[in-house]
Amino acid sequence: MDYQNIINPLYICGFFLTKLASLCLELLSCVLMKETLRYLAGIAGPSGYGSNSTAEQVTELPSWPSCSLFSPQLTAIVTGATSGIGAETARVLAKRGVRIVIPARNLRKAEEVKEKILRESPRAEILVLEIDLSSFTSISRFCSEFLSLGLPLNILINNAGVFSQKMEFSEEKMEMTFATNYLGHYLLTELLLEKMIETAAETGVQGRIINVSSVIHSWVNKETFCFNKMLSPKIYNGTRAYAQSKLANILHAKEMARQLKARNARVTINAVHPGIVKTGIVRAHKGFITGMIPYISLHPNY
User: Which stretches are transmembrane (predicted)?
Assistant: First the structure.
């Protein structure tokens, strides 16, 4: 043993810093584990809601009765509303009196969701318009069609998403997962943003943009965020591509929030992790982890 190093102040300082860092990591692990267990158990957090809370419970607020079913005051566009989280979001917002616009590639499925919502909420107002979020041309056409209706726009929920283990490209030759999950929603938001700002200014009601991301974004860091790795069939990884698209959703929200604040616009944007939900994306990719989800997940009604 080097006794000279033992009494060296720098050695002692380094030793205690290492111990402190180790203790901090252990404490952080305990906190994360505790929060994970609270989530899985459905224990309510500071907001008063937990993973077992339903969309209907969350929207049972004093402000919602003012949105009468007989006179819709808010308009929401919900992408990916033909199934899963998007369909449930559209259903409950419609029940609360919000006019719903469903952009969809599969118009048949969109009409089925519309009919199902109307059976529950006969006075709901629901519009179905065609869109392909992987196509810039289709997105531009959808926005032109929506804006031509002269409707206000209070809420934009960028929820649609795809996941594929096979490398595919959009008509603009973009990797399909990134094109659909991020680029499509980016363009959609850009083309509708002025309408949202205008609506908020005219009505005094704050506009809301929601980017549905995923905790899987944390699987990507600046060293591994690499487009080249998405463009080679030999090393393509669908999970990495999906994670990168979800990280991009968060970065988009952060930058857009900065720009909106600089403009003093009455519109906010947030990125959210929806939790563990057995949606179509999960059902289509079976494995050990996804196989466990039926025991711990929330099940959308669609």
Answer: 6-28
